[in-house]
Write a structure and sequence with these properties.
Length: 290
């Protein structure tokens, strides 16, 4: 047990212990809030945690770098980790429980059941990261069954992930409210991410191009530009003007289905993924015509 600002934080790594504790909390008619993370906490995570505080009685933050959502050649092994710091930050935010399972405990021997969506992963990041959203949906379903939250908070920074989770909750009848939290940004607009620590200083300067491209698109939409192809071309041009950037995709799509949109008559999602050096960054913004 560690002393937090105004309460004691409990750290649990055993899946069985977490599930038993969740059972007891539910029996005492308390509401459980879950904020799932992969750790290396930053202000984006902390904003989700703070908003989660008011949504229930027992606030659980999970820290788990989920192997099934990483593809071959991705950064699973070198994904940044700092458990001690994460526990300290969670304690400061008066988190009740930090749940940090081992991969071997969460995915037991002989594991073979996955949750896979049919359509949402056929867009955006799903195209360059096959099986990523199958890993995400599977681990989120598992965390839901172990932590048994009434409410779970996810960031809009990972917009496709948020929609995948919302869809899965509806399709599999999870009785859990999914709350989306707006993207938290650095002062220059770069979306906060655990992966930003990979960036060198020149790369960090190029990384702001994602946000500037989105902001530029919003301004164009406000000026009356309605063709998605035009917005995409200018966004791509802006990003390419920054050193060491390599665009994976820039897309304009329906915020619900993530299907491409050609002409903008209503709010649409602009989403993009860009490699800055070797670091793949994503960002998105809802573009709203006047
Ligand atoms: P991660 O640890 O990157 O898997 O993120 C855990 C949760 O925090 C996910 O729901 C993310 O969408 C959310 N998140 C990460 N970065 C941000 C950010 N800059 N603003 C808002 N939410 C974020």
């Amino acid at each position: 047990l560690r002393e937090g600002k105004d309460k004691t934080i409990k750290t649990i790594s055993s899946v069985a212990e977490m599930q038993a504790r969740a059972d007891r909390i539910r029996q005492s008619a308390k509401r459980i809030v879950l904020v799932p993370t992969m750790g290396f906490l930053h202000e984006g995570h902390l904003a989700l945690i703070r908003s989660g505080r008011s949504l229930g009685d027992v606030l659980v933050v999970s820290i788990f770098v989920n192997p099934t959502q990483f593809g071959p050649g991705e950064d699973l092994e070198k994904y940044p980790r700092n458990m001690e710091r994460d526990f300290a930050l969670a304690a400061q935010e008066s988190v009740d429980i930090v749940f940090s399972p081992d991969a071997g405990d969460l995915y037991g021997q002989g594991f073979e059941t996955f949750v896979a969506l049919q359509r949402l992963p056929m867009h955006l990041c799903g195209l360059s990261r096959p099986n990523h959203f199958r890993g995400v949906a599977t681990v989120v379903a598992k965390l839901f069954n172990v932590v048994q939250p009434h409410v779970a908070v996810f960031g809009e920074k990972d917009f496709q992930q948020l929609q995948v989770v919302r869809r899965m909750v509806k399709d599999l009848n999870f009785s859990i409210a999914i709350i989306g939290h707006p993207t938290v940004r650095e002062p220059d607009g770069l979306a906060m991410s655990s992966r930003n620590c990979y960036l060198s200083s020149p790369q960090r300067r190029s990384a702001v191009s994602l946000y500037l491209a989105l902001q530029g698109a919003q301004q164009q939409v406000e000026k009356g530009i309605r063709k998605a192809s035009e917005l995409i071309s200018s966004a791509e041009e802006l990003i390419r003007s920054y050193a060491d950037t390599d665009i994976d995709y820039v897309a304009v799509c329906d915020p619900e289905t993530l299907e491409g949109v050609d002409t903008i008559h209503r709010p649409v999602l602009m989403a993009l993924a860009v490699r800055v050096g070797k670091t793949r960054l994503i960002d998105n913004m809802i573009l709203t015509p006047r």
